[in-house]
């Protein structure tokens, strides 16, 4: 989402923002397009150059106390200049009373003034989390998202290849389902993508021959997760004897989701292959890589050293003459 309405802040219950409207009701349709917050203390001194109007503005105890030290005429002039910058909105924290002059100036300019009982630091942390989630780039994908040994694995593959059956087997082994069929993805940080289940089919899974089942009801709350960071994309493909599949794992493929590159594995499916075990091993191997151990690269390095030290080797290569 590129922007959110100021009025949406008043409807939030998840992040406990505790906001009430004081003035500027007609400006609730104004847009906030940045998750960063600004405390424009220098604005009260008349320095407007670095005021970011797309951000939510916060006045805390320091700003409000400073206003009371100014002559009324000067305070009115500064506030008029401040609200004339077409800012999104102003939030006054700590439950501090909003002076009538400030409320009247904001009302005249059509800028919402909100009040919260939170301390500035607490409110800024909460509202940043709210805005990061609301403004995050998002999309929907066809696949299955699981938490396997704490690793978020997104299963991709054409319809009917067995993604849901593999996911069901993993759940029965004690792993956790995040989403089946439709995965809603959001970029929550420059290099992090999180997935959740669609609200309509959350906790449900379609198994051919059985129909729709509810994983939460069947296996309990420990079998599901509401959200998980996607750390591996694993694509299931039909086995093709004419295709040379990766046998060493040295070259790491990437899959791009919302402009974030995520490690990708392509795993061929055929009768006799235990896909559940393969996925568990992929998760364990990923955890090992995070600890600095890359089995394939370490094996290749040992092999190269052995070749270089072999009798008859020249310049690091075997003598085949």
From TrEMBL:
Similarity comment: family membership: Belongs to the HPrK/P family.
Any GO MF annotation of the entry: protein serine/threonine kinase activity
Gene name of the encoded protein: hprK
Region ranges (Important for the catalytic mechanism of both phosphorylation and dephosphorylation): 205-214
HAMAP family in the record: HPr_kinase
Catalytic residues (UniProt): 142, 163, 181, 247
Chain positions recorded as ATP binding sites: 157-164
UniProt function note: Catalyzes the ATP- as well as the pyrophosphate-dependent phosphorylation of a specific serine residue in HPr, a phosphocarrier protein of the phosphoenolpyruvate-dependent sugar phosphotransferase system (PTS). HprK/P also catalyzes the pyrophosphate-producing, inorganic phosphate-dependent dephosphorylation (phosphorolysis) of seryl-phosphorylated HPr (P-Ser-HPr).
Keyword Cytoplasm: no
Family annotation (Gene3D superfamilies): HprK N-terminal domain-like, P-loop containing nucleotide triphosphate hydrolases
Phylogenetic classification of the source organism: Bacteria, Pseudomonadati, Myxococcota, Myxococcia, Myxococcales
Keyword Amino-acid biosynthesis recorded: no
Protein name: HPr kinase/phosphorylase
A Pfam family of this chain: Hpr_kinase_C
Keywords, ordered alphabetically: ATP-binding, Kinase, Magnesium, Metal-binding, Multifunctional enzyme, Nucleotide-binding, Serine/threonine-protein kinase, Transferase
Cofactor(s) essential for the protein: Mg(2+)
PANTHER family: HPR KINASE_PHOSPHORYLASE, PROTEIN YJDM-RELATED
